[in-house]
Every structure is written in C-alpha cells, then in structure tokens.
Amino acid sequence: MAHHTIFLLSFALVFLASIASAAVVEHTLNVGNLTVRRLCGEQVITAVNGSFPGPTIRIHEGDQLVVHVHNRSPYNLTIHWHGVFQLLSGWADGPAYITQCPIIPGNSYTYKFNVTGQEGTLWWHAHVSVLRATVHGALIIRPRRGRSYPFPKPYKEVPILLGEYWRSSIMDIENLAIANGGAPNISDAYTINGQPGDLYPCSSNKTFKLNVVQGKTYLLRIINAALNNQLFFKIARHRFTVVGIDATYTEPYDTDVIVVAPGQTTDILFTANQANGDYYMAANAYSSAPNVPFANGTTTGIIHYEGSTSSSAPLMPVLPAFDDTITAHKFFSNLTSLTTGPHWLPCPVKVDNQMFVTVGLGLADCGANATCSSTFPPYRFAASMNNVSFEFPSRLSLLEAFHSGVGGIYTEDFPDRPPIQFNYTDTRLSSNIPLMLTKKGTRVKKVKYNSTVEMVLQNTALLSIENHPMHLHGFDFYVLAQGFGNFNRTRDSPKYNLRNPQERNTIAVPVGGWAVIRFRANNPGVWFMHCHLDVHLPWGLATAFAVENGPTPSTTLPPPPTDLPRC
C-alpha cells in the first residue's frame, strides 16, 4: 500500500511539474503586400508582418501555440505548421482543402495547438498555391523548461532560411504555367534569410552577416524554404556536426557539406575555430533531373569573426557540382537517430499496411483548356502516385468530410500498388505515352488507428528522372533504407535499419531510386502526403491518409472549431 501511495504521489508531482513547465505562446501574423528591393529592382510580394522571411516563432516543447492570422493580402490563404504532429488538433494543420478551407482576403483565423514530443527546428508557411515562396518563417522548439539539449549548449542559435526570389509576381508565374500546361519559370536568385548575397547584382549591401566570437560554438538551424530546389550548403574552411533533422535528434554526424531538400530542416553545430577574418556561407542547387532548367546561381552570407580588421574579400567554399548525386546520397543516407534522445521511440517491427507507391511525372488531358500546350500535345504535364493524379476538393475539406461522414468528396480506394508493373527507372521508357497517362481523382488511403504503415516510394523515369522530396503531415516516419534503381524486396529488405533509423517528415527519394519509410498511424484525422516541389503539387503529386479514430475519447478527433473557415 505504501509503495502504491508513493507511486501515485510521484506521478502527481511529475504531472503537475509538466503543467507548470508549459506556457501559452501567442503571436499575430499580419499577411499583406510588401514592396521589396532586390536584384536592382522593386517587386510587390506577399509577406508577413512587413518582413521577408516572416517572424521566427520560438516555443518550448509542451507549450500551446496560439497564432492569430489576419489575411490582408489579395489571395486566399492558410498557414501550415510544417512538421508539427498536431496530435488530436488536425483542424489546425493548415493545408487548404485538406484540413480547412482558405482564409479569404479581409478575414482572420486563429490557430491553436499544443506542441508535444518534438524538439528542434520546424517552420511555418502558406499552404495555398505558391504563396509559401515569401510567406514563411522559422518555428523553433526548444526543450521543455528545466531540460537541456542532448549536446553541449551552443553560444548562440541562428535560423538560416534558404529560399528563392523572383523578379516577377510568383502568382502570375504559376497562373501562366497552369494555363499553358507547362512548368513555371525558374527563380532569379537563391537567398539566405531573404537576401541573395554578394554574387548577385545590387545585393552586397544587404548580404546576411553573422558575427562570431573565436572559439565559440554556434547552432545553425537551417531550413530549405525554396519552392523547387534542393540546396547544398557549406561554410569556407569550417566543418559541421549535424545534431538534428526535421525536429528529431540525430547521432552526431561530422561533415563539411549538407544538402537540404525543400521542406527539410537540419540543425548543425559549428565552431568558430579559424583565423580571424571573413568566410562565406554559401548555397547552390542540387539539381538531379538531366536537361531540366534550374537556377544555377549561388547565394551567400558572411561569417565575420569579431575583432577582425581584414579588408580582404571573404573566403569562398568549394561547393559540389549541381549534379553531385554521390555527395547528396552520402549525406542523406548516413544520418541516424539518437536513440538516447528524449522523444525516441523504437521503430515498430510488425507492419499492418504494406504499400508500394510509384512517384513521378506523367501527362493528363488538356480538357477544355484551349491554351494548353506542351511537348506532348494534346496533353499537359501531370504528376501522380500509383498513377493517381491528386485532385483537390473545392466545396468541403477532406477532414470535414471525414469527420462528418459526408460522401462525394473523396473515395477511400487509393491503391497499394501501381496499376502496371514495368521497369520504373528505365530512361528508355521516359517518352512512353501509354505509361505516362494519369487518372485524376481524390483518392485516399484509409488506415486503422495505431496501425503501422510501410511505404516503398519508388521514383520513375517517366518524362525525367528526378529526386522527389515527399512530405507527410501529422507524423514523423522512420527511413529504413534508400537506394538506386528498382526496389527489390528480396535484395533490399535485409538492408533495413530497424535499430536507429533516422526520423523525418520529409524524405528526398533518390533520383532514379527508392526509399522505404514506416510510421505508426496514431493520430486520427486526414493527413496530406505530397511532393514539396511546388511545381509538382498542382500537377497532382499527392495523396492523403484517413486515420480512423481510436477506441477512447483521448484517441478521437474532436469536432472542428466553430470559426473554422468554410468553403
């Protein structure tokens, strides 16, 4: 009896301490037009609180985040909290027509959700059209109050947002691409914290600069907020220790270069251990698709050692070639989880739902669009998963239809296998029109609560081979293995890392290759999965998971907020 009383008392003290350590963190995001000057000219962009990038939101694990969004822009808008689990708060996830309808111009909405079981770097961004090009910011989750990092505390923490910039209206660029059935124009510059850097015209007076103290260690929280490009990142004469990805801790990984796909984050420690002076941090494209145009520029920031009086130009790192798949794959495939970290859970062994999903480009009928043109008339470019090209609903969000049992919005028949088996990565089939033709549909995969899903994501060579960053809302997943060519279960399943696989919310599926991911569906709701190259999302490279409610009220999705935006 005494032992039982002591246990209950201890549990109560821990519970009360966890409540006491949590806080309500409140922010306001005013979204509207902003005139910025970049690349020798002015451009009106959509921005938040008058800045590009938008404000950094800092919270502690366990906090509740309350964000008031006022849409003063001329466009429909939602905000997605990229990588946040949204446990039982799927209504706040943010993707338009998936969990809510957009906030129309002149209206407001307040997002409220708890952030638990996650620490590290995430980000927030618009989730309507291509607005996230300029509507985004960092979301930093520090350890719960009273707890520490699983690595020595850095001297300073610095968000580094990698992005893209266009001299023209990004919305006009997308609308033109949709109208003519082709790809959008490439960007005019890459950026570090909103600035192109010294190597672009009319940019050196605003280049991002980080002042460092010799001998001190800094935590750089790197976010790839670019629309369509993976990016290599280096600092001249400095090495990094990777300690986190996508708000999960990793085993320390030493490197002098990282690669970050759109949607991904990487936390790195670097020590200012070089001679006093100036050193460039720099990022350029990793472009894996052959003969596909991309922005072939380099964005820079400056690491300046305090006390340095050098007038020499900053030292430039030697960046990988744009098509250096070997370096990219080495980085992506060598990361592992820190199993002694505060939120680590072992990878589930038993699999309930096994899926093999092809990911790639294709063609779709132009339909009634008389202006549609491409290299394959009368077709327009499309993209698909298992030959299903995702079509967004328009009169009700998927989550509202799921919660209320409304029919006619989606079907629960997303296939577990592609309709045709072929040599998926054979480039000789890249122009095979019968294989490229896709079917439009709003088809989702329904899974039981707490079941385990394993997906083989298999890239195809249709139209082009390419590395595809695939993002899953509502969950982190374990990356069990990745490789090139066609996945072969007999050959490749023995390679699975079930001991300390890296956890991510966004996986860069290797060019001409595959990746195997696994997750436990312990979060009821509808969760979007899509390519985080914005050129491919409107083409249909997406699907969704409908996760059933669990057996108890604490595992059941609550009703929607009364003020949730409606279509």
UniProtKB/TrEMBL annotation:
Catalytic activity, EC: 1.10.3.2
Residue intervals of the Plastocyanin-like domain: 31-145, 157-308, 413-549
Keyword Repeat: yes
InterPro entries noted in UniProt: Cu-oxidase-like_N, Cu-oxidase_2nd, Cu-oxidase_C, Cu-oxidase_fam, Cu_oxidase_CS, Cu_oxidase_Cu_BS, Cupredoxin, CuRO_1_LCC
Cofactor(s) needed: Cu cation
Keyword tags: Apoplast, Copper, Lignin degradation, Metal-binding, Oxidoreductase, Repeat, Secreted, Signal
Major place of residence: secreted
Source superkingdom: Eukaryota
A single MF term (Gene Ontology): copper ion binding
Details of cofactor binding: Binds 4 Cu cations per monomer.
GO CC annotation terms, alphabetical: apoplast
One Pfam family per UniProt: Cu-oxidase_3
Signal sequence extent: 1-22
Catalytic activity reported: 4 hydroquinone + O2 = 4 benzosemiquinone + 2 H2O
Subcellular location field: Secreted, Extracellular space, Apoplast
GO terms of biological process kind: lignin catabolic process
Family: Belongs to the multicopper oxidase family.
Function: Lignin degradation and detoxification of lignin-derived products.
Protein name: Laccase
Species in which this protein is naturally found: Coptis chinensis
Lineage: Eukaryota, Viridiplantae, Streptophyta, Embryophyta, Tracheophyta
